[in-house]
């Protein structure tokens, strides 16, 4: 089924949200559910891939802060995966990012093999990494401090340095390596 890449419109929000939730469902970002699309304070490139001019099957949002651009979200509906939609969205978005002044674009992702392979194949290079650590309800609370009157945390999301990976994986079930990928942009960045 053919798709069209076009600018995001507020009328796309429900379909955008459904696409994002389903795209993340079987990834390590499965619980990063949004009820409303992100509002950007900086200039942004916001595109969707649609079929029948209404059903969002892919999306990309890139926020631009001077010469630095960051992919806030790139997602493809799982029923339409592996058809070049993500690559088409990136190719359409990058010239607009360059026109807005960006000279680099970065993105952060976890350990999902498909996402890491896509960034590498799309010309990105890993530049740094750290850990995302989740404390689940049934894991020990030792070492956590809270303000007076509050219980120890039931759940928690934390960042940690990569050097603590072995220790944290021994203590918590859900530890993810979060990687930053960077790609240099030029005026000749192809559309």
TrEMBL record:
CDD domains: NAT_SF. Keywords: Acyltransferase, Transferase. It holds the Pfam family Acetyltransf_1. Residues 3-153 form the N-acetyltransferase domain. SUPFAM superfamilies: Acyl-CoA N-acyltransferases (Nat). One of its GO terms (molecular function) is acyltransferase activity, transferring groups other than amino-acyl groups. PROSITE patterns: GNAT. InterPro entries: Acyl_CoA_acyltransferase, Bact_Acetyltransf, GNAT_dom. It comes from the Bacteria. The keyword Calcium does not apply. PANTHER family: AMINOALKYLPHOSPHONATE N-ACETYLTRANSFERASE-RELATED-RELATED. This is N-acetyltransferase. It comes from Promicromonospora citrea.
